Amino acid sequence: MLKSKYILFVVFLLSAVAVSAQKAERNYIRKGNRLFNDSIFVDAEVNYRKALEVNPKSTVSMYNLGNTLSQQQKFQDAMEQYVSASNIEKDKMKLAHIYHNMGVLLQAGKDYAKAVDAYKMSLRNNPTDDETRYNLALAQKMLKDQQQNQQNQDQNQDQNQDQNQDQNKDQQNQDQNQDQNKDQQKQDQNKDKQNDQKQDEKKDQQQPPKSEKQNNQMSKENAEQLLNSVMQDEKDVQDKVKKQQKVMQGGRLEKDW
To answer: Which of 71, 81, 19, 22 is nearest to 42 (CA)?
Structure first.
């Protein structure tokens, strides 16, 4: 009898604790909702987290906490709360809301492919939600535009790469032509220099040095002068001889030896 009473007391105590915990959870959630509606998101976050401390598996607290974090631009943290709630929640309507909000965050982050998947999951749980249907159509259009833009960028990038390769090839050809022209110019200069040297050597061989010609001319003039001088001297000698002969002849007339 005493044992049965003890068991009943424990069950009553546990029930009382559970009821108290549920009441505390509800109080935190309600307070958090009031703060959320008043746009006091930081305090609302505190109350939803307290509700999760009381009941870590409360999908309502997770969902509301995700909404509050989203309002504070904490998108990654909000997504984590939505994902956790989606893994536990079994109610289709609640799941539809969770996936809808996940799609909104993904669409805001321009992850349109995952946003489309999230909206589809929401519609599977609630096919009559027109707002989700509209968001899905919008996300699909934005995904198509994104893919088209990416395709255009890839094509432009390929074209730019081809143009750069052509430009590099043209530059290489220009450099090669310049090198060839430089080599040809150098060869032509060397050839011209060799030709000039050969012409100078040939000219030296064909034409005697001017100095030798001048020396020859000087020698001829000297010879003529020398000849004239000799002839003049000879004339003078002859004149002297004739004169002496006259004197000797005259002398012979005047004085007899």
So the answer is: 71
Question: Cα–Cα distance between 38 and 41 in angstroms, integer?
Answer: 8
Token match 């959870």: residue?
Answer: 25
Model pLDDT, residue 154: 83
Question: What is the reported pLDDT for 68?
Answer: 98
Write the CA distances from 106 to 28, 60, 117, 163, 194, integer angstroms.
29, 21, 10, 37, 81
Are 100 and 129 in contact by the 8 Å Cβ rule? The answer is yes
Give the 3-state secondary structure of 99-137. HHHHHHHHHHCCCHHHHHHHHHHHHHHCCCCHHHHHHHH
String of DSSP letters for 229-240: HHHHHHHHHHHH
Q: Which residues of 57-88 are buried (b: 16+ CB within 10 A; e: fewer)?
A: ebbbbbbbbbbbbbeeebbeebbebbebbbee
Three-state DSSP state, 73: coil
Question: Which residue ranges of the chain lie beneath pLDDT 70?
Answer: 1-19, 162, 192, 195-257
DSSP class of residue 207 equals S
**Four-residue CA torsion sign, 157, 161, 166, 170:** positive
Distances (CA, A) of 108 to 55, 207, 209: 31, 98, 100
CB atoms under 10 Å from CB of 122, counted, come to: 25
List the helix and strand counts (H, then E) for the chain. Answer: 8, 0
